[in-house]
């Protein structure tokens, strides 16, 4: 933040202090990307022209007053793409090779020979066709998987997905794939898209990976699909409620891998987030176009691809 501190008066504020810090401020850097403090502090934003959030998802700050205002919203698109793609690939391989089962047997000091699966030749549907979804698709293709995408607009001959189907018709396209990966942004259209109907439409024995937002899925419906055996496994990095409550049945299900909203958080990620803001701050001061401008009607940065 040193270059920014040399160029501007910077106020650092916790959630409780945000209203006072916002008065007279021209820009806001939401570094705590999970904070929900901005909506209640919004009336104090008397001179605000730009909000930047340190995440790819903008749902924590996508409330009606900001959406309907002239305030520009930017995000940190691009920081997490490769890291999350590697994480998803690791999960797909971990399921195929049953690493969790090997660890349990090791802890029991039990020698048990098993057969595992090939990843090559299996199929995946990546739900969310932004930069993160594209990075995921490229890595899964690299290990021999057949990959399609699901996005807002159906199309063919996509450079990363080949075929992109409409996410509004999700249940028509999940029946023939081995792995469904959720990386879509959280919007009114995507909230709860993975519900009992969607899980029931998935291929028996298939697997579900969510590295997008917890609210994309209905947790109780996922638990039911896993308990019934219709889904063979799930890997979850995000949840409807975070931290995941201790009483959640997901903790004790052997066919579930849980991580603490960390799929993109590799060494150096915090510095990278500040660097994205610093670059945009320099652009803002110089009157140049900002990067990663969010279409507030859509809830994400639009792409031509």
TrEMBL record:
UniProt superkingdom: Bacteria
* D-isomer specific 2-hydroxyacid dehydrogenase catalytic domain residues: 16-294
Under the heading SUPFAM superfamilies, the entry gives: Formate/glycerate dehydrogenase catalytic domain-like, NAD(P)-binding Rossmann-fold domains
Residues covered by the D-isomer specific 2-hydroxyacid dehydrogenase NAD-binding domain: 89-263
**Key words, A-Z:** NAD, Oxidoreductase
Recorded hits in InterPro entries, A to Z, give: D-isomer_2_OHA_DH_cat_dom (IPR006139), D-isomer_DH_CS (IPR029753), D-isomer_DH_NAD-bd (IPR006140), NAD(P)-bd_dom_sf (IPR036291)
Q: What is this protein called?
A: Phosphoglycerate dehydrogenase-like oxidoreductase
């Amino acid at each position: 933040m040193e270059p920014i501190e040399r160029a501007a008066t910077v106020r650092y504020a916790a959630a409780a202090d945000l209203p006072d810090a916002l008065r007279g401020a021209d820009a806001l850097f939401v570094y705590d990307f999970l904070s929900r403090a901005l909506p209640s502090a919004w009336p104090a934003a008397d001179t605000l022209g730009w909000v930047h959030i340190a995440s790819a998802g903008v749902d924590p700050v996508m409330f009606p007053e900001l959406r309907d205002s002239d305030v520009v919203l930017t995000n940190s698109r691009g920081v997490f793409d490769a890291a999350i793609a590697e994480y998803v690939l690791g999960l797909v391989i971990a399921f195929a090779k049953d690493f969790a089962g090997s660890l349990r047997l090791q802890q029991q000091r039990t020698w048990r020979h098993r057969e595992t699966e090939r990843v090559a030749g299996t199929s995946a549907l990546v739900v969310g066709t932004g930069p993160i979804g594209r990075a995921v698709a490229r890595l899964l293709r690299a290990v021999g998987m057949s990959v399609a995408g699901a996005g807002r607009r159906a199309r063919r001959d996509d450079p990363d997905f080949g075929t992109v189907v409409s996410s509004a018709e999700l249940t028509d396209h999940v029946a023939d794939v081995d792995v469904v990966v959720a990386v879509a942004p959280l919007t009114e259209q995507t909230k709860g898209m993975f519900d009992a109907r969607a899980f029931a439409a998935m291929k028996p024995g298939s697997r579900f990976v969510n590295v997008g937002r917890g609210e994309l899925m209905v947790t109780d419906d996922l638990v039911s699909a896993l308990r019934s055996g219709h889904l063979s496994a799930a890997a979850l990095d995000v949840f409807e409620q975070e931290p995941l409550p201790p009483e959640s049945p997901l903790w004790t299900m052997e066919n579930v891998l849980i991580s603490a909203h960390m799929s993109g958080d590799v060494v150096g990620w915090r510095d990278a987030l500040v660097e994205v803001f610093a670059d945009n701050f320099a652009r803002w001061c110089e009157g140049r176009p900002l990067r990663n401008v969010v279409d507030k009607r859509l809830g994400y940065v639009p792409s031509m691809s």
